[in-house]
């Protein structure tokens, strides 16, 4: 009876204990295997209790005690498994928390250093707090110096000055060892120092660490340095998660160094380019100054020569006219014919000299413009009195119905007449027999835009950029027959520009050419600041 009472007490205790373990495992959210095992034990004990009640009398005491002993052993094993699993879960949770903290720290560091293009600024940001937040005690960064072609300690964290000096000497002494680490270009995790491994022992002695991670700094898949981070305490060893963090850090340092090098190259290129531009600008300014001086010298020379030629040329024209008119007696037909040629060529030469003289005066700014408001219709009509006989000789129709009667330009009448004369003369010259010339004008803001168009052969594409140059003449059949100086369009351009205007050409080969120029349609109003500048 006493034994039965003892068995009842043990059975009830085991039942309550199994129930408590079930609740504990559920609260900790342990694996289903542990929970299931706990429930199984509870069921086993419950069944044993029922078994005891129903069949205790039929079996001997020894077998019952053996069953209970086995159930207790199973319960003990499950309890040990639960404790072990709980420790592993806590360890995993701690490792996960540490990794999350490290990744967050790397992320924040990356954001802060993304704009730092100096290597020194980047390395200075790797301080004691940063290393501690990653879960390490000490750190070393060793990088290959590109100029000296040797490994150098660029950054150390939580090392004394004496230790740093020793490490630098060891790096120089153990150059082959570190070069070998670079050549492998892979991450090395040393959790526990292997006394039989000389490399691990040497690195541990140099870095004063019991466990550490070595990660390569890569630039374009080439190792240019290493990051060493670890702990000196044997109770705080590095893990696989630490290895990943150091690898990420080394990768970010490699990218930052590469970006810094690219920025340095870009900055240096910019400096060289700026220096080159300044030098070229200076050279161009000097060349432009010389060119202006040469151009002025040329203009002065042309002006002087043409002025000296005008006097004898005037005499030649005058005497030839006197002889042709017979004022000094009758001239034989043959001599008369030659005198007419002399007058013709002297007239052409006088025109050439006048054009050269005007161009040089405009370039040097010595010509005075007597500007006034001129109706375009009147200027065109005055010029047509000279051009009309040439147009009639080729049955060319000149249409000026597109010129508004009230449209004006602010210009020197004499010089604008020369513009119309040259443009209309060229149009008549290149317009075929029974052709047509069209003159249009329209107001565009403060300017009047005038066009002289013909339906001639047009200008070859290769000549368009040169037609306003002095003495330039396009090679064509018409120019081959009719001689000219090549100064007409050059003079037109300079006169228009002297009036603050602009001229351009639109051309369609075998369909015609249109010269368009624009001039102010009224006097420019002077502003107070303009008056101040003039004074």
Report on this model:
This protein has 535 residues and is an alpha+beta fold. It has 3 domains: 2-97; 113-266, Beta-Lactamase, CATH 3.30.450.40; 368-520, 2-Layer Sandwich (Heat Shock Protein 90). The chain contains 15 helices and 12 strands. The protein has helices at residues 2-27, 32-55, 61-113, 119-124, 128-133, 161-173, 175-184, 198-207, 240-324, 333-364, 376-393, 413-430, 477-481, 488-498, 528-534; strands spanning 138-145, 150-157, 188-190, 211-219, 222-231, 371-375, 397-402, 408-412, 436-444, 447-454, 502-508, 512-520. The protein has a 5-stranded antiparallel sheet, sandwiched between helices. A 5-stranded mixed sheet has the order 7-9-10-12-11, covered by helices on one side. A hairpin with a 3-residue loop joins strand 11 and strand 12 (512-520). Helix 1 packs antiparallel against helix 2 (32-55), helix 11 (376-393) runs parallel beside helix 12 (413-430) and helix 12 runs antiparallel to helix 14. The longest helix is centred in the middle third of the chain and has 85 residues, at 240-324. The radius of gyration is 53 Å and the shape is elongated. The relative contact order is 0.05. The model is unreliable at 29-36 and 527-535 (pLDDT under 50).
What is the compact description of this entry?
With 535 residues, this protein is of the alpha+beta class. The chain is built from 15 helices and 12 strands. It has helices at residues 2-27, 32-55, 61-113, 119-124, 128-133, 161-173, 175-184, 198-207, 240-324, 333-364, 376-393, 413-430, 477-481, 488-498, 528-534; strands at residues 138-145, 150-157, 188-190, 211-219, 222-231, 371-375, 397-402, 408-412, 436-444, 447-454, 502-508, 512-520.
């Amino acid at each position: 009876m006493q034994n039965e009472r003892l068995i009842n007490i043990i059975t009830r205790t085991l039942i309550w204990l199994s129930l408590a373990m079930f609740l504990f495992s559920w609260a900790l959210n342990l694996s289903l295997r542990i929970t299931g095992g706990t429930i199984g034990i509870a069921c086993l004990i419950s069944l044993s209790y029922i078994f005891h009640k129903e069949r205790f009398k039929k079996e001997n005491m020894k077998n019952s005690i053996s069953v209970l002993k086995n159930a207790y052993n199973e319960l003990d094993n499950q309890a040990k498994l639960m404790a072990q699993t709980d420790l592993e879960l806590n360890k995993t949770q701690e490792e996960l928390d540490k990794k999350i903290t490290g990744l967050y720290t790397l992320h924040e560091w990356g954001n802060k250093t993304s704009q730092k293009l100096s290597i020194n600024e980047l390395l200075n940001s790797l301080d004691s707090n940063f290393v501690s937040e990653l879960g390490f005690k000490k750190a070393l960064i060793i990088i290959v110096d590109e100029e000296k072609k040797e490994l150098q300690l660029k950054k150390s964290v939580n090392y004394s000055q004496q230790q740093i000096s020793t490490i630098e000497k060891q790096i120089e002494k153990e150059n082959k060892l570190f070069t070998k680490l670079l050549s492998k270009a892979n991450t090395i995790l040393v959790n526990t120092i292997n006394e039989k491994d000389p490399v691990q022992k040497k690195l541990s002695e140099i870095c004063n660490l019991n466990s550490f991670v070595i990660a390569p700094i890569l630039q374009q898949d080439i190792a240019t340095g290493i990051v060493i981070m670890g702990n000196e305490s044997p109770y705080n060893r590095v893990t696989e998660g630490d290895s990943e963090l150091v690898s990420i850090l080394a990768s970010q340092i490699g990218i930052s160094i590469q970006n810094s090098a690219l920025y340095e190259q870009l900055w240096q290129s910019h400096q060289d380019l700026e220096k080159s531009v300044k030098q070229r600008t200076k050279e161009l300014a000097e060349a432009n100054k010389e060119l202006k001086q040469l151009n002025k010298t040329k203009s002065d020379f042309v002006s002087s020569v043409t002025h000296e030629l005008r006097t004898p040329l005037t005499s030649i024209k005058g005497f030839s006219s006197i002889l042709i008119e017979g004022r000094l007696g009758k001239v034989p037909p043959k001599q008369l014919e030659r005198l007419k040629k002399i007058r013709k060529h002297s007239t052409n030469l006088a025109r050439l000299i006048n054009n050269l003289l005007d161009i040089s005066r405009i370039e040097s700014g010595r010509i005075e413009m007597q500007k006034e408001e001129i109706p375009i219709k009147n200027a065109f009509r005055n010029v047509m009195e000279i051009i009309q006989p040439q147009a009639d000789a080729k049955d060319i129709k000149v249409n000026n119905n597109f010129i508004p009667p009230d449209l004006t330009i602010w210009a020197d009448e004499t010089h604008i007449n020369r513009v119309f004369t040259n443009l209309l003369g060229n149009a008549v010259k290149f317009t075929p027999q029974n052709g047509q010339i069209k003159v249009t004008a329209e107001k565009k803001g403060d300017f009047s835009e005038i066009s002289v168009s013909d339906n001639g052969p047009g200008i070859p594409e290769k000549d368009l950029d040169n037609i306003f140059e002095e003495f330039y003449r396009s090679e064509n059949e018409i120019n081959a027959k009719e001689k000219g100086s090549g100064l007409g369009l050059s003079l037109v351009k300079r006169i228009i520009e002297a009036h603050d205007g602009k001229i351009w050409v639109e051309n369609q080969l075998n369909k015609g050419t249109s010269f368009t120029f624009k001039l102010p349609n009224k006097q420019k109003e002077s502003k107070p600041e303009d008056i101040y500048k003039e004074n």
